[in-house]
Amino acid sequence: MTGTEGCDRYMSSKFEPKIHVFFCVNALDRGVFSTQDPEKAARIQSVKMPCSSMIKDIFMLKAFECGADGVMVVGCPAGRCKRVDGNIRAAKRVAWVQKLLDEIGLGGKRLVYTASSDTDAAITLLLKGLAELGPNPVKPAAQASPR
Amino acid sequence: MIVAKQKPIAEIKEMLRPYQKVLILGCGTCVKTCFAGGEDEAATLGAALRLAFGQESKSIETEELTVERQCEDAFIQEAAQAVARNEAVLSLACGAGVQAMARRFAKSVLLPGVNTTFIGVLEKPGLFTEECSGCGDCDLDTFGGICPVTRCSKRLMNGPCGGSKNGKCEVSPDIDCAWQLIIDRLTALGLQGNLKRYIPAKDWRPSLAGGPRRLLREDHVI
Ligand code: SF4
Ligand code: SF4
After folding, report:
1. Does the beta carbon of B170 sit less than 6 angstroms from any atom of ligand 2?
2. Min Cα–Cα distance to chain A from B214, Å
3. C-alpha of residue B207 to centroid of ligand 1, in Å
4. What secondary structure, in 3-state letters, does B47-114 show?
5. Does the interface ipTM go beyond 0.90?
6. B61 Cβ contact partners less than 8 Å away, ≥ 6 residues apart
7. Domain locations in chain A?
């Protein structure tokens, strides 16, 4: 993102959270992330991965550095990971980074893990957490461009 | 391997507060294996610190680099240029690595990013356990390969304390009783006779009690 986009968001009185989704390509129909709600869809940027276990701590933090207000990781439903336990690994990594986000003051509720069967409910939960926490507090100048 | 644990972000932040440009230097050997200070951890810590400081008025520039081993001069030389372009180095190596860096880069500020914890093994994925205290006079032959100096909570050298229950130490049900393990293993090996050996009071001089230790191999000194 550019610095200007970040500034616009901070000047706007209505908080419209930006959400970054990392999803497993095997977890979703046709390997595409979608949501029923067009308003939510407009706020979402998604990245597909060969398996949810490919998610790394740095990817999630980098999304926040690039201006995301919330991040969601989507894996396969329990017992249906093609790589056996990739979804369990992803969920654990997300839980670890949630603690890190609390530690650095950004708030662990900005990050959720969900199984693909439940993405709309997870976005709603994430938006609820974001409504409590407000916009990503990292000043736009400190936000990195995606590398 | 040396097992270490990353320091809390709040503590690292306070150390770094006086600086604007910081090199986060990972080490690709022990601390990488225990997820405290390898490439991934250096990158994650860099982002975490930028996000943490980004919420305040303070901004910080971080550079991340990982060398193979920070306890060896030949490897840390590779970091020279990166060290020179930053105001301070946050080393994610064990205490030996931090000190090797401080020795080589006399004019640079060296800060520890991890707490060096123990000499241990990877018991199963994600679990590291302490096995050796580096006492300088190894008696593992007597104890069937299980160290009572390190693994018996009371460092008993001549048999169990009597508090062991179901193979667990009385100090905590999470700790195996080292003496139960020693007796089981010596029995399995047919070496019960070892248990009759009296171990006199341990001589701690070869350990840290004698001041900093040195290991000199004349045949490798030119
Ligand atoms: S006896 Fe000493 S050197 Fe041997 S394993 Fe135990 S602490 Fe380490
Ligand atoms: S219970 Fe076993 S390990 Fe614990 S202090 Fe006693 S002898 Fe040592």
Report:
1. yes
2. 39
3. 10
4. HHHHHHHHCCCCCCEEEEEEECCCCCHHHHHHHHHHHHCCCEEEECCCHHHHHHHHHHCCCCEEEECE
5. no
6. B20, B21, B22
7. 21-31+38-133
The vertex-B114 CA angle with B111 and B118, nearest 5°, equals 130
Here the tokens at position B168 are 């667990």
The closest ligand to the CA of B140 turns out to be: 1
Task: Please check whether residue A5 touches B, CB under 8 A.
Answer: no
Report CB contact under 8 Å: B51, A62.
no
Interface of A with B in 83-102 (CB under 8 A): 100
Distance from CA of B57 to the nearest CA of A (A): 8
Q: Tell me the CB-side half-sphere exposure of residue A124, using CA atoms within 13 A.
A: 6
Q: At residue B14, what is the residue type?
A: E
pLDDT digits (tens, 9 = 90+) for B119-162: 999 999 999 999 999 999 999 999 999 999 999 999 999 999 99
Count Cβ atoms below 10 Å from residue B142 Cβ, excluding itself: 16
Cα dihedral sign for B68, B72, B77, B81? positive
